[in-house]
Amino acid sequence: MPGELKRMQTIVEQNNRPFYMHITEGNEISEILPGYRCHSDSKFSDIEIAPSYAIISLYQQLFR
User: Fold this and answer.
1) Per DSSP, what are the bridge partners of residue 50?
2) Is residue 1, in this structure, part of any structural domain at all?
3) Cβ-contact 45, 19 below 8 angstroms
4) Alpha carbon distance 47, 35 (integer Å)
5) From what superkingdom does this record's organism come (predicted)?
6) Rounded distance between C-alpha atoms, residue 34 and residue 51, angstroms
């Protein structure tokens, strides 16, 4: 439907831990390009320009 916000999510499991990837509208570089945010448990990545950046950022927070 026009004007409806569509949300997409992908779940990836690594080291027996689910990582949820959310695709957002806009990122730090562009309001029209997609952004990617990953979370697991109560930890969240920043909105990144690529899904791999979001996963790496969160993974480093969780497993320092």
Assistant:
1) none
2) no
3) no
4) 6
5) Eukaryota
6) 10
How would you class 19 by CB atoms within 10 Å of its CB: exposed for 0-12, middle for 13-18, buried for 19 or more? buried
Percentage, residues of the chain above pLDDT 90: 47
Q: Do the domain assignments include residue 20? A: yes
Whether the CB-CB separation of 5 and 50 falls below 8 Å is answered with no
Q: How many domains is the chain partitioned into structurally?
A: 1
Range of the domain at 35: 8-62
pTM to 2 decimal places: 0.76
Work out the pLDDT band at 52, boundaries 50, 70, 90: very high
50 is a domain residue? yes
